[in-house]
Amino acid sequence: ATIHELAGVVAAGNAMSPDVASTAVVTKLLRVCLLEPWLLLLFYFGPASALRTSKTTSGPNIPWFALGFFAVAIYNSCVGFGASASRAAAVGSGACLAMAMAALGIDADLGKVRRLGLKPVLLAAILWANLLYGGLLAARFFMAVFP
User: Fold this and answer.
1) How many CB atoms lie within 10 A of CB 99?
2) Closest by CA position to 130, among listed 7, 38, 19, 2
3) pTM above 0.85?
């Protein structure tokens, strides 16, 4: 219920059965696809929409990456990319993910965390526990409701 990476979803699903793995992957991909319209709705109608329409901005701030994601998804669903383009995209995606993770690690500074004090660390621990136990309770509930 709270696995964020598709590879983790595949591994957790396959640990149970191939049918569970298929259902888990489809569910995860559906959730990812539903992020696009939600992101656009938040952009245009969310609380920060009033800030974008103020006189201080020049032109519309459009989330181009979200529109690009949508265009690629539509193209791949209707026409499809070739096998070599898919392989190249997979390699490029992996490289970008590795660079992003490295950047997060390089920017991590335990001294800054210590200077912030105990409150942010406690908040992070509480949020982590909420995610862990909330996901566990939701999974148990839905497993009981839909055996």
Assistant:
1) 10
2) 2
3) no
